[in-house]
Amino acid sequence: MLKAYYQEDFIEAGCDEAGRGCLAGPVFAAAVILKRDFHHPLLNDSKQLCETDRYLLREMIQTEALAYAVAYVDHEEIDRINILNASFLAMHRALDLLQTRPGYVLIDGNRFKKYQELPHACIVKGDGKFFSIAAASILAKTYRDDYMNNLALQHPEYGWCSNKGYPTIKHRNAILQHGMSPYHRKSFRVTDPQLSLTL
Q1: Nearest Cα to 82, choosing from 191, 182, 188?
Q2: Which whole number is the average pLDDT over 39-46?
Q3: E strand segments, the chain
Q4: 104 neighbors 14 (Cβ within 8 angstroms)
Q5: Count helices and strands in the chain by DSSP H and E runs
Q6: Cα 68 from Cα 100, distance rounded (Å)
Q7: Which of 45, 65, 115, 190 could form an SS bridge with 127, CB 3.0 to 4.6 Å?
Q8: What interhelical angle do 131-154 and 51-64 show, nearest 10?
Q9: Residue 43 CA to chain centroid, in angstroms?
Q10: Is 17 helix (H, G, I), strand (E, B) or coil?
Q11: What is the pLDDT of residues 71-109, one digit of tens each?
């Protein structure tokens, strides 16, 4: 069962990102502050949920959260500063946008660049352990999916409506056939040496 909070002394914001492993598009991040007694039986790591449940939970989170914010770093900035720094920056931007300032930050994963002077804890697989991180994972994932669905209207040849920019074989094959779009991350290796064996 997920926990409502990590520590008892400060208002806590959970943070997570989506799109770090993609070949195209931005990396999104969200920050969410929930009530201390928050509980929802369906809320979990976004990767464990079907699309319908993610969008239903997004509406619930946006209604019931004390504060939430979503931000992103685009593909060009990712190429300039690398994806790890871009992930940190997207989370910092989301924290900047919160209407309520937290006193403590929970981060999904094992690394983070300190945000201002706020204490933080990195929680490996935190989106399956704490409600606030799970909520952030859902917002980051659904907002990024919406963004990629819109890009897919401009570039249907890459199948972004289904792969959302992740390196599926179909996506890689589309890059080999059509070349890179303006939204691909040029610093990423988009062709896999193993892929040529399956073509």
Answers
A1: 188
A2: 87
A3: 12-18, 27-33, 67-73, 104-108, 120-123
A4: no
A5: 6, 5
A6: 9
A7: 45
A8: 120
A9: 16
A10: strand
A11: 999 999 999 999 999 999 999 999 999 999 999 999 999
